[in-house]
Amino acid sequence: MMFLPEKFFIDEKIQLTNKISTSMLKLVKELQHENYFSVMTLSDLEQFLDLSTRNLQLFFKKNFNITPTQFLREQKLKHAKNLIIESNGNLTISQIALEIGFFNFSQFTKYYKEYHGVLPSETKKLAK
Fold first, then answer.
1. What is the pTM of this model?
2. CB under 8 Å to 63, separation ≥6 — which residues?
3. Quick check: helix, strand or coil at residue 117?
4. What percent of the chain has pLDDT over 90?
C-alpha cells in the first residue's frame, strides 16, 4: 500500500507528458502548413518547443520518423518551391536559397532535387 501514491504520481506524470506531446504535435502539424518553420534553426526549434536536444530528437523520431534537422530542411525546401512559384520566376535561385537559410548553393540544389525530384531551375522555368 505504501507504493500506491508513488505509482499514482508516475502514472499522472506519464498522462501529463502524453497530453503535452499531443498538444505539441498538433501545434507542429498546424504550423508546418504555414511555412512557420522554414526560417528556423535547430536551436530556434528547441527553444520554441522548450525541449532539450535529445528530447527534440525523440519527439520527431516518434511522431514524424525523421530527425529535427530533416524536418527543418523539408520545411525550407517546401517554402523554397513556393517562393519560386509565387515569384513567377523573378527571384533568383541564390536569393531564394539565402532567404531560407542556405548559404551553400550547390547543397541547396542537391537537397532540392532530392526532395522535389527536379532542380530549382526547372521549377523556375515552369513558374514563368
1. 0.75
2. 21, 25, 28
3. coil
4. 34
* C-beta neighbour count of 60 within 10 angstroms: 21
Contacts of 109 (CB under 8 A, 6+ apart): 93, 119, 120
Q: For position 9, what pLDDT does the model report?
A: 43
What residues contact residue 118 under an 8 Å CB cut-off, 6+ apart?
none
All cell numbers assigned to 42: 535547430
> DSSP string spanning 40-73?
--HHHHHHHHT--HHHHHHHHHHHHSS-HHHHHH
DSSP code at position 128 = -
pLDDT tens track for 40-81 = 888 888 888 888 888 889 888 988 899 999 988 998 999 999
Look at residue 47 in the predicted model and tell me its pLDDT.
87
Instruction: Return the C-alpha torsion angle 17, 32, 72, 85, nearest 10.
Output: 180
Helix, strand, coil percent values for the chain (each to nearest 5): 75, 0, 25
Cβ pair 38, 75 in contact under 8 A = yes
